[in-house]
C-alpha cells in the first residue's frame, strides 16, 4: 500500500535498547462455526495413513485507512495533510506438502501493498520456493531455495494469518527488500528440534542492492548498504520451549494461538554478513562494515479460562550494528481481542528516543480465518534541524482478513 507520510526509522547502528510488548485479552462471544475442513487450510492426503499430504492455504488483508500525514507530505506534487485510502495489505497463496516421510516442499506466492497510488497490474511474486529433506526425522532437516528461515528474533519472519496486531514488529525484518526478496534469500537452511530446543540456521547469498525495490542511500560519511558483490549472510534463531511445543513446519512463527496452546519460550538469534555496509571518510577513502545483529526475546501465550480467554505477551532486547549512523526509513505502514504494542529505540543519529505505539481491537468472527481489526498508531515526527521530536501524528486503520 502506498504511503505518503514520512516514515519512521526501521533499524540503525545502535547499541541501546529496542523493545516490543504485545498484550491481549480475549473475552468470548458466541458465533457460528467456520468450516472445520478449512480452519488449518485445505488438505488432501496422499496415503491412507495420512502421513503424506498436499495443503493449500490462502489469506488476504484489506485495509481501510485514515492517516494524519507528516508536515509537507505530498501526493503527486500536491500538499496533503490527511489521507484516506483502501488497499490490499497482503494477499498470499501457499502450497505445501509432505511428499514422503522425509521430503517436504513449501511455496508461497502473492503480493503486498496495493493502493490507489500503486502501479496498475503489477505482478505478484514468489515469497518462498523451497524443498527440504529430513536427514534425522524431527531433529535435522536440510532445505534449499528461496527461504525465510531468519534471525535475529521470533518475528524476523511471521505467519501472516496469525499476526497479533496489524503488522509484526517490522524492525525485526532487518534487511527487508534491500538485499532480500521480502525477507527471503536464496540459500540453504537447517532446522529441527532437540528435545525442547527448537533451532534454525541459514546461509544465503544476498541479492545485489542495485535491484532493491527502493534505492539504497548513496555512499556518504554515514553507513549504507554496499553496492559491491555481496558476501555470504548467516542467520540463526534458537528457542527453548518450556511448555507446549510449537510446529516448525513453516518458517513463520505464530503471532497468537487464541488460547489453543500454552506457550512459554525464550529465544536468541543473530544475523551476520561481512562487508555488507560501507561509508567514506574522504572523497576517495571507503570503509566497509560488517552487519552484526543479535537479540534475545520471550513469548508467552496461555489460555485464561476453558472458554477461550487468553493472554499473549511478547518482549525483547535487540542490538543492531549496521555501521556508523545507519538509519532506514520505512512505512509501517465473534471474539474481541484487545492489544497494545510499544516499540522503544535509541538511535545514534536521533537526539530523542523513538517511541511508536499501536493499540487496537480484533473482532475474531471465526478466529484467524475471518477477523476485523481496528488499529490506532501514534508515531513521532523528527525535525531535520536538530533531530528531535517536533510533533506526533496518528493513523487509523480498519482491516478485514480472510484466511484458510
Enumerate how many helices there are, as a single number: 0
Task: Work out the number of β strands.
Answer: 22
- Structural class category: mainly beta
Shape from CA axes?
globular
CATH topology: Porin
CATH architecture: Beta Barrel
For the termini, the CA-CA separation is: 23 Å
Q: Spans of 5+ residues with little confidence (pLDDT < 50)?
A: 1-30
Radius of gyration: 21 Å
Strand order in the largest sheet: 2-17-16-15-14-12-11-10-9-8-7-4-22-21-20-19
Helix content: under 10%
Tell me about the biggest sheet? Answer: 16 strands, antiparallel, barrel
Overall mean confidence score, pLDDT: 90
Main CATH class: Mainly Beta
The number of distinct structural domains comes to 1
What share of residues are in beta strands? over 45%
Series of H and E elements: EEEEEEEEEEEEEEEEEEEEEE
